[in-house]
Design a protein that fits this description.
Elements (H helix, E strand, L loop, with lengths): L2 E10 L7 E6 L20 E4 L9 H5 L21 H5 L5 E4 L1 E3 L1 H8 L3 H4 L4 E5 L7 H13 L3 E6 L5 H7 L5 E5 L5 H8 L4 H12 L4 E7 L7 H13 L3 E8 L4 H7 L12 H14 L4 E2 L1
Helix pairs in contact: 3-5, 5-6, 9-11
This protein binds iron/sulfur cluster (3 copies).
One iron/sulfur cluster binds next to loops.
Length: about 290
């Protein structure tokens, strides 16, 4: 079995306890308009272009078999099949392919050198994209990691079949579970899907005894509303085994990747520190668990 992986990043301290290695899976059932990893949304490999290196020579346009590249190297991601012809053709080394086919054994071999740094507390975090889009691969990789005594956390949108979650549950020590929008229609408007399945899976995992941290990305003008904050508070009341709420203020780092994919900037604004402090205070007054940043 192979999976499509965009990155393996060691020494992360933001995605679970201790020092962790992040495995970034390609493919996501959602299309959040603020997505910080837009290159992970599509399931297959695809080209990215570094504007700082591109000279606009147009060699890639002649090499590309699908017409995904414009006369001066412009990128139309929707037409890219990830064939790699532009990478070989580009004299400026401005192109790269995001998404590599790897076996669970390949991934394990990349992780093992990091193992001494985990020191019993850290481990591996599966993220993306949505890891559960490649649930069979997750299962095989998680089993290998267990054999090595390496703990596994998963960052998930929660948007996957319940039976797939049930299958991986025994291997996942911590779910970093996104809760993006309380109102189902708003959820559909901003992410492309409503949140019914996401809520159902959250309840199922909670009732099955999973360790859960709720991750709430707050985007100004999108979900910084009293209604959503109240919804987060109610979730922590209804599902009392949720361990913590992580408040994640929107950041604009995804825009750099959007440029490399030939996409326009997402148009959202980064909140002021004072605004974020206000959100945190409000959430603390509504939630029955710690609200951290
Ligand atoms: S990888 Fe490059 S050459 Fe191949 S389809 Fe995509 S843009 Fe075109
Ligand atoms: S990406 Fe490379 S080949 Fe394409 S226009 Fe830019 S420099 Fe030329
Ligand atoms: S769930 Fe995450 S990876 Fe998927 S589109 Fe939303 S922000 Fe991007």
């Amino acid at each position: 079995m192979t999976g499509i992986i965009t990155d393996i990043l060691p020494f992360s301290v933001n995605d679970g306890p201790g020092i962790r290695t992040g495995i970034f899976f390609k493919g996501c059932p959602l299309s959040c308009r603020w997505c910080h990893n837009p290159e992970t949304q599509r399931p297959g490999p695809q080209a990215m272009v570094l504007p700082s290196r591109c000279t606009g020579c147009g060699t890639c346009a002649s090499a590309c078999p699908t017409g995904a590249r414009g006369a001066h190297g412009e990128m139309d991601s929707s037409r890219c099949t990830g064939c790699g012809a532009c990478v070989s053709a580009c004299p400026a080394k401005a192109c790269r392919i995001s998404g590599t086919a790897m076996t669970p054994g390949d991934v394990l071999a990349r992780i093992l050198p990091d193992k001494p740094f985990f020191r019993g507390r850290g481990g591996v975090t599966l993220t993306g994209g949505e890891p559960m889009e490649q649930a069979g691969f997750v299962l095989e990789l998680a089993a290998l990691l267990r054999e090595e005594g390496i703990g596994v956390a998963m960052e998930t949108s929660g948007c996957a079949p319940a039976e797939a979650f049930r299958a991986v549950l025994p291997y996942i020590g911590l779910f970093l579970y996104d809760w993006k929008m309380t109102d189902p229609e708003q959820h559909r408007f901003w992410t492309g899907r409503d949140n019914a399945l996401i809520r159902k899976n959250l309840e199922m995992l909670h009732d099955s005894g999973a360790e859960i941290v709720l991750r709430c990305l707050i985007v100004p003008g999108v979900n910084d509303t009293r209604e959503h904050f109240r919804g987060i508070g109610e979730l922590t009341q209804d599902l009392p085994r949720i361990r913590r709420v992580d408040l994640l203020p929107y950041h604009a780092l995804g825009n750099n990747k959007r440029t490399q994919l030939g996409l326009p900037a997402d148009g959202f604004s980064v909140p002021e520190e004072e605004t974020v402090r206000g959100w945190q205070e409000e959430l603390r007054s509504l939630c029955r668990v710690p609200v951290c940043r």
